User: Fold this.
Amino acid sequence: MRYLPHTDADRRQMLAAIGAKSIDELFADVPAHAVLKGPVAGLSNTMTELEVEREMGAMAAKNRPAGSMASFVGCGAYRHHVPASVDYIIQRGEFLTSYTPYQPEIAQGTLQYLFEFQTQVALLTGMEVANASMYDAATACVEAVMMANRVTRRGRAVLSGALHPHYRETVETHGRFSGFAVDAMAPSPDGLKGLAEKIDANTSCVVVQYPNVFGRLEDFSALAAACQKAGALLICAVPEIVSMGAVTPPGAMGADIVVGEGQSIGNGLNFGGPYVGLFAAKEKYVRQMPGRLCGETVDAEGRRGWVLTLSTREQHIRREKATSNICTNSGLCALAFTVHLSLLGERGLTELAALNHAHAVQLCEKLAKVKGVTVLTDAFFNEFAIRLPKDAAGVVDALVDKGVLAGVPGGRLWPGNADMANVLIVAATETNTPADMEKFAAALAEVL
Amino acid sequence: MDKSQGRTSTAAGEAALPPVVTKSGHRALDQSEPLIFEQGVPGRIGVDVAPAPKVASKLGAFARKGEVGLPCLSEPQVVRHFTRLSQKNYGIDSGLFPLGSCTMKHNPRLNEKMARLPGFADIHPLQPVKTVQGALELIDRLAHWLKTLTGMPAVAMSPAAGAHGELCGMVAIWSAIAAKGESATRKRVLVPESAHGTNPATAALLGYQVDPIPATADGRVDLAAFEKKLGPDVAAIMLTNPNTCGLFERDIRKIADLIHKAGGYFYCDGANYNAIAGRVRPADLGVDAMHINLHKTFSTPHGGGGPGSGPVVLSEALAAYAPLPYVVHGKDGFRLVETKEGAAQPFGRLKAFNGQMGMFVRAMAYMLSHGADGIRQASEDAVLNANYVQARLKDVMTPAFGGTCMHEALFDDRFLEGTGVSTLDFAKAMIDEGYHPMTMYFPLVVHGAMLVEPTESESRESLDTFIDTLRHLAAETKKPGAADFFHAAPRLAPRRRLDETRAARAPVLRWKPPATKQAAE
Assistant:
């Protein structure tokens, strides 16, 4: 087997050096009834690289990649172009095959890019500090709610009706077993509706999304002020981080914690993971933050360097008193993010965001002209919602056969909600061509 | 033998030369590299973006007013920056990485290639299910391998990492207890003192009171103490097996039977499953839930701290209590179940979308490459290598416990007594010798612990060189002046020891533009 260096002679000699007669002796502590005499039955044996490629290739071929169609699917995962150099950098063995940088003398590469990542996330979101990443936006959202519970010593989260349903469900799951209350509004493009009235003396936080799941941009600064007055925190979730190149950051509207999905920068769709959760906050809350933090310091010769810091918040030191149980995060996805954003820079990000917005505006104008379509989103970045005269899931299904991935039907996100069944959420990015958009509009007109 | 052995940094006849101080700050291949924010010129770009067509903006009042504050660089500058950073990192590709509990085994590049097939990499998680049948088939097939290898009837695929898997398994237990109407009474979770920190942190997240179980003198769970702690208020035991001392829990079946008899559940931390995969099925040990770190046992890359993936296998008793979504196979192909249906009692979502697909692909390629026979051989070789290291070091270092070990050799710091050299010093000296240190000061039940996990990826020659180096260092600790020498280590790495106290006292967690810095001071 190509990955296993030992010859049978090696194994014999090593067993002799150990003083064991057979490998079985080394497993002597395993209860006799649980010892398997040979390889586990019912599974294939060793394959060559070529054979594995055939097996895997056959499964891959049964999928229809988004890039093989005119694709307009978003809702928290966006198809952007990732420059070739990003993938080259993250496949360098020094990055790919390294561990969490617990030995900073030989991990300055990882630590320096994490420091750069934290800075980039803080700048994009308009916040003071950011951590070294979480699993994804949904889990970052949960961590933000639990952090708000710790900061305020309260136990009730109010969630916007325009929060991504997966983020909402993830918070609800955790609320059930961690014992905090979750008050979620009914789905509506008006994501701020009813939130201020829901704040009470036990409310730890209000969670909004920007742009919201219907693509809508909403000014939550008044809500943030109301939260502050009531002693609650305002948490803002950003599902499409490229938007920060075009819009006012949530930090400028008074958010206390900003979480986000970083997939859009540097990372492919990958059927939903691995992605990279972003987590930024006001500096005064830093000791209540979850996850790893990289900080600047000096070495014994006075040279600048970086280390993981404030680890007394973390599980490997604090155990049951830790701020979170998170250990492994999304290091390599954070690297992809950092490299891609470094390539873009101020100018590239601004231009990319402008291009995304322009494509979405063009698409929106084209779809609005299709008979029976109503646009539900007024101000938006690269995603918007439309209402169709019939069930959107069926329309999406019909459009796939015409080579169009039309977006996410409301029924997929809010199953059983009749009011959302005809809603279709549509995204456009720089990867869409004018021909893609024409194709979408024409195909939609045919099936409606 | 390699002629460079025993080399000093001075060539013959150069003793009189002053130390090298370079003008550039670079030291040959070790390039001094400023932050990306300290580079660049406004107007440069590293990605050409097509000009945006003119449209009537729909950003409304939300159009960004100021700059983000990002530096502008060209592609060659960015590639050079990150290449230089990479050269300050140690990875498995660089050398032996004996980090106990973390399983730093070879990461095959075939797996990377497979994960980049457009059929896996370029599919959206919310595409219509009929367009992603191959993806669901892969998840289903990986699930089949995990269930077959472990002997368990069910598996939850969505957890994003080991700790996330622990959470998933413990929520399944929490849900089963709730279904029996015992939530109010079962409030205690038993966790051995040697456990990973994530275990007590996870139990605490669910509101459980964490009750530690002591270890015996031979590094296993103290069965008598465990039995005494059992009661109608115990929800579960969280036990790592092989345990964090690198030892198999001999009484594991008894422990499982006792916790079941007391009405509780057995959560097994599967971080060390790589020692027994293909040789022992956790189902036969009485496990109710166990997460499998695909980034340990099945070699998806650690990537400097993630991403990971932590599927959880579940027993019959817990199979109904899994998270959403999950894949089922029907007559019309594969389906993705995203809401509650049928008799299942799913506890909801643990994250967005469908799990760590990119990691599933890599793990599947690893499993197919090895096969059932190769997986078994890998476990045996991992155990063989650890025992070889222990056997060849036991006369100069001090194994924490007698007898053979599983996939990790655990030493304590008795061999350093009276030398003035600590575990930390000893480990840092390994850096100068070109090795990543072993895991230090963990598990907590052993004084000055050094946990060595060579993995099956190391050849005998590689192990011999490593062992000779450690033997040399162990001998060096006994020499006069050893304490100063070891305290100073590492001296040849890109950085010397870093001041962690300073980093924590006044945290600097991001770069700030010089003007802002001055204004703040």
